[in-house]
Write a structure and sequence with these properties.
A 4-stranded antiparallel sheet has the order 2-3-1-4. The chain has 3 helices and 4 strands. It is an alpha+beta fold. The model has no long low-confidence stretch (mean pLDDT 94). InterPro entries: Dimeric_a/b-barrel.
Length: 104
């Protein structure tokens, strides 16, 4: 991506039971992230709090916020996503999703 290309990034923070955090991370890294990356998303970073109750990760898409929203909607409504989440446990008890802008 060139310096002039617009990139939109969202922070995704999920709260989960600390007993499930490792399983949740494995699910994300083995199934969710590859499926999202195949659709043009870029996972920037992932962090877990010391208590193991919150996972925060940043996902980007080359494009405007509107293009990100369209790609996100297509992902949410896709058969790929439905297959990834079919039969998966309910890892997340709360979530906070918001657009973010890198400042340093």
């Amino acid at each position: 991506m060139s310096e002039t290309t617009t990139k939109t990034t969202w922070m995704r923070r999920y709260t989960t039971d600390p007993g499930l955090i490792d399983q949740f991370i494995e699910f994300l890294t083995r199934q969710v992230i590859p499926a999202r990356e195949a659709r043009g998303f870029i996972v920037e970073q992932g962090w877990v709090n010391p208590e193991g109750t919150q996972l925060t990760w940043f996902v980007s898409y080359a494009g405007t916020p509107e293009e990100f929203a369209a790609a996100e909607k297509a992902w949410e409504e896709s058969e790929d996503r439905a297959q990834v989440f079919a039969g998966a446990p309910a890892y997340v008890s709360a979530k906070d999703l918001q657009q973010a802008r890198r400042v340093f």
